[in-house]
Specification:
The complex is a heterodimer of chains A (877) and B (113). With 877 residues, chain A is an alpha+beta fold. Chain A folds into 5 domains: 72 residues, no CATH class; 201 residues, no CATH class; 204 residues, no CATH class; 174 residues, no CATH class; 194 residues, no CATH class. Chain A is 53% helix and 14% strand. Chain B has one domain: Winged helix-like DNA-binding domain superfamily/Winged helix DNA-binding domain (Arc Repressor Mutant, subunit A). The N and C termini of chain B lie far apart (35 Å). Classes of the chains: A alpha+beta (877), B alpha+beta (113).
């Protein structure tokens, strides 16, 4: 053992001083030569003779030098170095082949890594809380909201439930804080005192809330988010104990949240305040105070068990807190926090992941095919090397080294591609893609993708060396390898199939997107500009202050320079507005309405609203300015609501009690339906109420609408000037209605774009694969084609012959692809809008594109085949 | 390591190694001088070819029985001198003893009637 060590050490030394060593060796041998020469001279030979004699006796000096030298080298190292150099030389000589393989691998690895990095935080990675699988979101699920919610009175009762810890937060509101002297709108959340404890999070600075802070009239304390602390206090630890003015209230800063902290419903947070829920308030007050509730399950309890145990408590509180009309439509929901977070994006995430994995598969198939083709082409060379004495092990090692280099180059290029793609993704993605800021090049994913494609390259690069080179191969005769060529054909068909599935998916999404873009909204968004704002409750404390603000605002904004329509509303489509249970409505002189009608939406609007938005009035009339001071509050119904309430009866003039309050409102008109529930969901029934000049009707948020031919920039400047004249500290968001509506199309557009990109890449790969295999086929069959042409085949026949090959493989691929599309399309139904998953137009279009591409890809090889000169071909071998 | 080789080339190679080690018992020599020593001491019976000598020398060096260093020869040329190491001396003694036993055994066999 020690002998091996010392010889290894000597060898290492020789390795480092290679040139010196070689010189020494040469000197040593030459010295011997010279000594013998001198001896012979001394013995009497003349100098020339002596030299020749000495040389003769010495024998083959070069060979001897080589023999000695070889003892001193690490054999495996030398071999590896030799293999590397050979491989690199071969790669340089075939730059086209090298480029194609590396680019293919880069595309496959890069794209799949980038996409995986994006969906990993959504689908797979753990949430940033300890034991995140114990965390659940609980609450009532009813027609009021898409997500489960709770109320304060129920929350207090549910604390007796089976959970280890139950906590609550108020739905987020914007709040205004004074940073230095500037008022800024920030995100505040009010939470119960045990909120952070339930999630297992501790402040990174300062302390958590304690039960004292959560008492109803305790002095207000606050926790800052890490980002807010950095931005507004420069990360200074002395921020602790300072006072921040939030919504005109001074709050004392007691701590800072950790950098990795996330709100469970993934909202942006700046300041966390205690909710100070008051159990002493009457139940009726607390049962209309909304919360979101989350809980941690005790060890070993499953979600189903928790649901079961909570059910009796749920039933008891629901009977007390849920309005009678809604009781039957409300049920208990207990679901994992992750499910609550990713519900919206789950389907699109899986679809993206599936598409990109298909792309990776296609890329690997391509590389495999290319490697096989090249291996077959080099059979002659391998046979020659075997005949010259190379062992099988040596040949295998050499091919493996080459494949390894390809794999590494492809992997490196893949890393760069992934990084670039990720930046692109993050830049282009709409704000709704959750957790995108957490998407980063995940090392384990990269390694996995790298290993996968390395494995594929190795496997198929090694295949030719494993086969014993045969003597016939030496002569250049083409040994029939039917099994292998069949495999290659299968690979091409597989690529075509994958490509078709991707294309079908992309075209379905694109058609869906197009339908989304072109569907009628019910209103005319062109030339409409909106200005939205929210009054700070504390600035406009007496309700009359709010009223006078809105009155003055109307008076000012009505004077649009250049003319046009102006209206004021509390919200605008396609977003929803406030809602109330359908069952609340009562019609004078009619039986009670059906109990489970879901929700009805309503907006408070000024008379010009319908004209400003271009909503047609189908019956009756729009509101009039004169009605705004009188006692009656007129009503306009949407067509759907009118039909639901009155059927074929004339709705005009009917009296409706909207809030079961005894006050009746007359119906003066029926407006056309509009999209008021986003773009993809069916619209809710809706009614419009006239903004009166009294406090009851006016909320604190508003949207001003302008239909004008003035250019948006000028209008915006004027609007801001008017707002600033009344309240310079009020933040106003100005944008065109087109922009607002477009935001609803952002996510489908993003997903469609990505899948379209993958489909295009997949198509390219399939085309390249087909082209490669066909070229190779033509090259191999040169002699056969020459013979055919010699005995009378026309160039066209030859070209068609090649195209026939292409056609068969493509045909099989298309058939398999269509079957695959049928099977898989069903899974993405949730992403499609008014497009059937088996939409024949999309499938036909995809198949056509693929066939055309195949014909084009086969064009050059078939052209080349047709131009073979039979004389040269026959003479070639 | 003392394995019995059945290949005659191997036997000769081991013997050559032993002769080289012996040649260097007194003082360091360069390659040519080692060949001369063996040739002359064996009265021209054993002639060492370069093709065998140098590989043997390098092999012995790699095995740690010789150490080499460059010096000036008697006729003012740069030459590589080899020297026995402690391990080398030990090896020489072992091989010499083995050789002695071998030749004695052969002699006994040949001399019986």
């Amino acid at each position: 053992m020690s002998q091996w060590l010392s010889s290894a050490w000597l060898r290492a030394k020789a390795l480092f001083k290679r040139r010196q060593f070689d010189r020494d060796l040469e000197d040593e041998l030459r010295f011997h030569l010279v000594m013998r020469e001198e001896k012979l001279k001394a013995a009497g030979l003349d100098p020339e003779e002596a030299r020749y004699a000495s040389r003769r006796r010495f024998g083959n000096r070069a060979s001897l030098q080589e023999t000695c030298r070889e003892m001193w080298v690490f054999v495996w190292l030398e071999d590896l170095w030799q293999d590397l150099r050979y491989a690199l030389r071969a790669m340089r000589k075939n730059p086209g082949f090298t480029a194609v393989v590396v680019v293919t691998l880069a595309l496959g690895i890069g794209a799949s890594t980038a996409v995986f990095s994006v969906v990993d935080p959504l689908l797979f990675r753990r949430l940033p809380y300890p034991k995140d699988d114990q965390l659940v979101s609980v609450g009532y699920l009813g027609p009021v909201d898409n997500n489960e919610f709770n109320v304060v009175s129920s929350y207090f009762d549910w604390r007796q439930g089976p959970f280890k810890s139950l906590t609550a937060m108020r739905p987020g509101v914007g709040c205004d804080a004074m940073i230095g002297d500037t008022p800024r709108r920030i995100n505040c959340f009010s939470v119960a005192a045990n909120f952070l404890q339930t999630f297992g999070v501790s402040p990174v600075l300062g302390r958590d809330f304690n039960p004292e802070d959560d008492r109803p009239h305790a002095p207000t304390v606050a926790l800052l988010s890490y980002g807010f602390w950095q931005r507004s206090f420069g990360g200074d630890a002395k921020a602790l104990g300072k006072t921040l003015v939030v919504d005109d209230d001074p709050v004392q800063i007691i701590g800072v949240l950790p950098k990795s902290f996330e709100m469970p419903q993934l909202g942006e947070i700046d300041v966390m305040l205690p909710a100070r829920l008051d159990a002493s308030l009457p139940r009726s007050a607390n049962s209309s105070s909304f919360l979101r509730t989350f809980a941690r399950l005790p060890e070993g309890m499953s979600i189903e068990q928790a649901h079961e145990r909570l059910l009796p408590i749920f039933n008891a509180t629901a009977d007390k807190d849920v309005p009678r009309e809604l009781r039957s439509e409300v049920r208990l929901v207990v679901r994992s926090l992750r499910d609550r977070q990713i519900q919206e994006v789950k389907l699109s995430s899986w679809m993206l992941l599936g598409s990109v994995l298909a792309l990776l598969l296609a890329a690997c198939a391509n590389v495999a095919n290319l490697m096989l083709a090249r291996a077959l082409a080099r059979r002659q060379e391998l046979a020659m090397r075997t005949a010259l004495g190379a062992g099988r092990g040596r040949l295998i090692r050499q091919t493996l080294t080459e494949s390894l280099i390809f794999g590494l180059l492809g992997g490196a290029a893949g890393c760069a591609t992934a990084w670039a793609l990720l930046r692109l993704c993050v830049g282009l993605a709409p704000g709704g893609m959750l957790r995108l800021e957490h998407a980063r090049i995940d090392l384990r994913v990269l390694l996995f993708a790298l290993a996968g494609s390395l494995g594929a390259a190795l496997l198929f690069g090694m295949a030719p060396a494993l086969e014993q080179p045969r003597a016939e191969a030496l002569a250049g005769w083409h040994v029939a390898g039917t099994a292998r060529t069949l495999f290659r054909k299968a690979l091409v068909s597989a690529q075509v199939a994958i490509s078709l599935v991707l294309l079908a998916g992309a075209s379905l999404l694109l058609r869906s997107l197009w339908k989304l873009q072109s569907q009628p909204l019910g209103f005319q968004p062109e030339h409409v500009i909106t200005a939205s704002f929210t009054l700070r409750r504390h600035r406009y404390q007496p309700a009359t202050a709010q009223v006078s603000f809105f009155d003055e605002l109307e008076a000012r904004l009505k004077q649009i320079p250049g003319g046009g329509y102006f209206a004021l509303s509390d919200s605008i489509p396609p977003r929803g507005s406030m809602g109330r249970p359908y069952s609340n409505l009562r019609i004078a002189g009619h039986p009670p309405v059906a109990p489970d009608g879901g929700m009805v939406e309503f907006r408070w609007v000024t008379p010009e609203y319908f004209r400003a938005l271009g909503i047609p009035i189908l019956a009756g009339r729009a509101f009039e300015e004169g009605e705004r001071a009188s006692g009656e509050s007129p009503l306009i119904l949407s067509a759907t609501l009118a039909r639901r309430l009155f059927g074929n009866e004339n709705p005009l003039g009917q009296q409706i009690d909207l809030e079961a309050s005894g006050r009746w409102s007359p119906v003066v008109g029926v407006a056309a339906d509009i999209k008021n529930n986003g773009l993809t969901d069916p619209p809710d029934p809706e009614y419009y109420r006239l903004r009166m000049h009294n406090a009851h009707t006016v909320g604190s948020s508003g949207v001003a609408l302008f239909r004008t031919s003035l250019d948006p920039g000028t209008l915006e400047r004027w609007v801001r000037k008017e707002f600033a004249a009344m309240d310079p500290s009020l933040p106003v968001t100005v944008e065109t209605l087109d922009q607002r509506v477009d935001r609803f199309r952002e996510r489908p557009r993003f997903v469609a774009a990505l899948v379209g990109l993958f489909a295009a890449l997949g198509l390219l790969l399939a085309a390249v694969g087909l082209y490669g295999v066909l070229s190779f086929l033509v090259a191999r069959q040169t002699r056969e084609i020459g013979v055919r042409m010699a005995i009378g085949a026309r160039p066209l026949d030859i070209a068609l012959h090649i195209q026939k090959y292409a056609g068969i493989w493509t045909g099989i691929g298309v058939a398999v692809g269509l079957a695959g599309s049928f099977a898989l399309a069903r899974t993405i139904r949730g992403l499609l809008f008014e497009v059937s998953p088996n939409d024949p137009v999309s499938l036909l279009a995809s198949a056509t594109v693929l066939v055309v591409t195949a014909v084009l890809a086969a064009w050059i090889p078939s052209h080349r085949a047709a131009r073979i000169d039979p004389v040269i071909a026959l003479r070639n071998e | 390591m003392g394995e019995k080789q059945s290949n005659p080339g191997e036997i000769l190679r081991d013997t050559l190694d032993m002769l080289i080690l012996r040649a260097l018992k007194r003082h360091p020599l360069h390659g040519y001088a080692i060949a001369e020593f063996i040739e002359q001491t064996s009265e021209e019976v054993l002639r060492v070819e370069e093709g065998a000598l140098y590989p043997a020398l390098h092999r012995l060096e790699l095995r740690g029985w010789l150490i080499s260093e460059w010096g000036i020869s008697e006729n003012n040329r740069r030459a590589k001198y080899y020297r026995l190491t402690a391990a080398g001396r030990k090896q020489l003694a072992e091989e010499a003893a083995r050789w002695g036993r071998l030749t004695a055994a052969i002699a006994r066999v040949m001399e019986t009637a």
